[in-house]
Design brief:
377 residues; alpha/beta; TIM Barrel; 8-stranded parallel sheet; two-stranded parallel sheet; 14 helices; 10 strands
Length: 377
């Protein structure tokens, strides 16, 4: 690969609508791309999604594309009907069942994989310890780090056992923020001991059990790095995640166009800082026309010595290793399999089991609470 093609493998782009724009497809044809992230406005129905992912993969001659989606369940779900409507992590958390979370991961993976989506930006490994944190809320399994560790691992293994890359998020923890990083740059001031005991525990557990990818948080953690948000912090992504926690997988940034980053850094500056910090894949979700510009500017940065080519090569090795392990050989989606798999009754049954179990537990909790109140009168 030439230098531009190598750098292009570090970029993940998104686009509006159900067909990719010409400059987007041209970039994939010429230099390839690390991956593509799909959102709700890209997706009409299972057959259209399968055809879209196949079209995009056929354009990529250098390496297969990572085709990503946020399919957490609950309110963060991109897939249209008739895909199964999977429950939010909080409902799974109330069940506290490794088996149910694992089977949920498997079912999600089967519906993603059959339409050509090969990477899920899940599980959410944030520990939800702040009730004012609406950006996470029911996206988290719960407020107990041991519970989040167990169920996050189960979902991860379920996804990966079915051939879908799991991406734990948002490292090193977004569960105790108040500000929404889509709009502001949050700051967390816990001690290092607190981070180790709470926020980092689910990530460490998943890493020890072969988590393949981690997404960064656009959050400043003053005990870890008072200057830079995690996405741009070498102290967090290299010294903590790579060295102390021994993560060997792929590090994915959250969208670099979110205001937590965009209000403080240009897109090019953020991209360079993220790579230097230790990120491998840069998400640029909503501006496909920016991708060729960013590619050129990163190329110039390497040429003038502001960004070492060795650093590009490190990320490239990790990305290509993941693609070789999980995406090859490429198998196009079968429309017959699409129709047979999406919304399968077995998947609906898993959802029903989770809903019924969580409902029973909620009722017991309500009765117990009512008794305690009565005893106190």
């Amino acid at each position: 690969m030439n230098l531009k093609t190598k750098i292009s493998q570090l970029l993940v782009g998104g686009f509006d609508g159900t067909s990719p724009p010409k400059e987007f497809t041209q970039l994939i044809k010429t230099h390839g791309l690390g991956g593509i992230i799909l959102f709700q406005n890209n997706l009409e129905d299972p057959v259209q999604i399968a055809r879209l992912t196949h079209q995009l993969q056929c354009l990529s001659k250098h390496a297969p594309l990572l085709i990503m989606i946020d399919e957490e369940g609950g309110r963060v779900s991109r897939l249209p009907s008739p895909f199964t409507r999977f429950p939010a992590a909080a409902m799974v958390g109330r069940c506290n069942s490794y088996d149910l979370s694992y089977r949920l991961g498997q079912a999600t993976a089967r519906e993603l994989g059959v339409v050509g989506i090969n990477m899920n930006l899940a599980p959410v490994l944030d520990v939800y310890t702040n009730p004012a944190n609406t950006v996470i809320g029911d996206r988290a399994f719960g407020s107990n780090p041991t519970l989040v560790s167990k169920l996050g691992l189960a979902l991860m293994v379920g996804l990966q056992d079915q051939g879908i890359i799991a991406c734990g998020k948002h490292f090193p923890g977004h569960g105790d923020t108040v500000a929404d990083s889509h709009h502001k740059l949050p700051k967390v001031s816990h001690s290092l001991d607190r981070f180790i005991e709470v926020e980092l525990k689910p990530f460490q557990h998943a890493i020890q059990n072969r988590l393949q990818a981690i997404m960064t948080a656009h959050v400043i953690y003053t005990a870890l790095d008072p200057q830079f948000p995690a996405t741009l912090s070498k102290k967090i992504l290299t010294k903590l995640l790579r060295q102390a926690m021994e993560f060997r997988g792929v590090v994915v940034t959250d969208d670099l166009q979110m205001k937590a980053i965009a209000d403080h850094y240009s897109l090019t500056e953020a991209a360079i800082r993220a790579i230097v910090a230790g990120a491998d894949l840069l998400l640029i979700c909503h501006q496909p026309e920016a991708l060729p510009i960013i590619l050129d500017l990163l190329h110039q940065a390497v040429k003038r010595g502001a960004l070492p080519e060795k650093r590009i090569d490190l990320s490239l090795d990790r990305i290509l290793s993941l693609k070789e392990k999980m995406l090859l050989p490429y198998r196009p989606a079968s429309l017959k399999d699409v129709k047979a798999t999406v919304g399968h009754p077995d998947h609906q049954k898993i959802v029903q089991e989770i809903q019924e179990r969580a409902g029973r537990l909620d009722q017991r909790k309500a009765k117990s609470s009512s008794r305690k109140k009565g005893q106190g009168l």
